[in-house]
Amino acid sequence: MNKSELVKELAEENNISTEESTMFVEMFFDSVRNALLEDGRVEIRGFGSFKIKSYKGYTGRNPKTGQSVEVPPKKLPSFRAGKELKEVINVS
Protein backbone atom coordinates (compact mmCIF):
# COMPACT_ATOMS: atom_id res chain seq x y z
CA MET A 1 0.00 0.00 0.00
CA ASN A 2 1.33 3.41 -0.91
CA LYS A 3 0.37 6.87 0.32
CA SER A 4 -2.34 7.51 -2.29
CA GLU A 5 -3.94 4.12 -1.59
CA LEU A 6 -3.92 4.94 2.13
CA VAL A 7 -5.62 8.27 1.45
CA LYS A 8 -8.25 6.59 -0.74
CA GLU A 9 -8.99 3.84 1.79
CA LEU A 10 -9.22 6.30 4.68
CA ALA A 11 -11.68 8.42 2.70
CA GLU A 12 -13.84 5.41 1.77
CA GLU A 13 -13.84 3.85 5.24
CA ASN A 14 -14.85 7.08 6.98
CA ASN A 15 -17.12 8.67 4.35
CA ILE A 16 -14.95 11.78 4.04
CA SER A 17 -13.59 13.59 1.00
CA THR A 18 -10.24 12.69 -0.51
CA GLU A 19 -9.01 16.20 0.35
CA GLU A 20 -9.84 15.72 4.04
CA SER A 21 -8.27 12.29 4.01
CA THR A 22 -5.12 13.68 2.39
CA MET A 23 -4.97 16.38 5.07
CA PHE A 24 -5.19 13.77 7.88
CA VAL A 25 -2.51 11.53 6.34
CA GLU A 26 -0.19 14.51 5.78
CA MET A 27 -0.75 15.71 9.36
CA PHE A 28 0.10 12.24 10.68
CA PHE A 29 3.30 11.98 8.63
CA ASP A 30 4.32 15.53 9.57
CA SER A 31 3.74 14.77 13.26
CA VAL A 32 5.87 11.61 13.08
CA ARG A 33 8.60 13.45 11.14
CA ASN A 34 8.66 16.36 13.62
CA ALA A 35 8.67 14.06 16.65
CA LEU A 36 11.62 12.14 15.22
CA LEU A 37 13.50 15.39 14.61
CA GLU A 38 12.83 16.63 18.16
CA ASP A 39 12.82 13.52 20.37
CA GLY A 40 14.22 10.87 18.07
CA ARG A 41 11.47 8.36 18.88
CA VAL A 42 7.80 7.68 18.08
CA GLU A 43 5.92 4.75 19.59
CA ILE A 44 2.53 3.58 18.36
CA ARG A 45 1.29 0.89 20.76
CA GLY A 46 0.34 -2.34 19.05
CA PHE A 47 2.03 -1.28 15.81
CA GLY A 48 5.67 -0.44 16.42
CA SER A 49 8.18 2.28 17.06
CA PHE A 50 10.29 4.58 14.94
CA LYS A 51 13.60 5.95 16.13
CA ILE A 52 16.68 7.66 14.79
CA LYS A 53 19.89 5.65 14.73
CA SER A 54 23.20 7.50 14.61
CA TYR A 55 26.14 6.01 12.77
CA LYS A 56 29.74 7.12 13.19
CA GLY A 57 31.88 8.14 10.26
CA TYR A 58 34.45 5.68 8.98
CA THR A 59 37.05 5.13 6.29
CA GLY A 60 35.57 3.01 3.53
CA ARG A 61 36.89 1.74 0.23
CA ASN A 62 35.59 2.43 -3.26
CA PRO A 63 35.15 -1.10 -4.68
CA LYS A 64 35.67 0.09 -8.24
CA THR A 65 38.93 1.98 -7.77
CA GLY A 66 40.18 0.61 -4.45
CA GLN A 67 40.74 4.14 -3.12
CA SER A 68 40.02 5.00 0.50
CA VAL A 69 36.94 7.17 1.01
CA GLU A 70 35.86 9.01 4.14
CA VAL A 71 32.21 8.23 4.91
CA PRO A 72 30.68 10.99 7.06
CA PRO A 73 28.58 10.28 10.17
CA LYS A 74 24.86 10.01 9.49
CA LYS A 75 21.48 9.49 11.11
CA LEU A 76 18.86 7.14 9.68
CA PRO A 77 15.28 6.40 10.69
CA SER A 78 14.53 2.85 11.75
CA PHE A 79 11.30 0.96 12.46
CA ARG A 80 10.77 -1.89 14.90
CA ALA A 81 7.51 -3.80 14.71
CA GLY A 82 5.52 -4.16 17.92
CA LYS A 83 4.57 -7.45 19.53
CA GLU A 84 0.91 -7.28 18.44
CA LEU A 85 1.83 -6.54 14.80
CA LYS A 86 4.27 -9.46 14.77
CA GLU A 87 1.59 -11.77 16.18
CA VAL A 88 -0.99 -10.70 13.58
CA ILE A 89 1.48 -11.23 10.75
CA ASN A 90 2.59 -14.65 11.99
CA VAL A 91 -0.90 -16.14 12.42
CA SER A 92 -1.06 -19.18 10.16
UniProtKB/TrEMBL annotation:
SUPFAM superfamilies: IHF-like DNA-binding proteins (SSF47729). CDD domains: IHF_B. It comes from the Bacteria. GO terms for cellular component: cytosol. The keyword DNA-binding applies. GO terms for molecular function: DNA binding; structural constituent of chromatin. Keywords: DNA-binding. Belongs to the bacterial histone-like protein family. This is Integration host factor subunit beta. It comes from Oceanidesulfovibrio marinus.
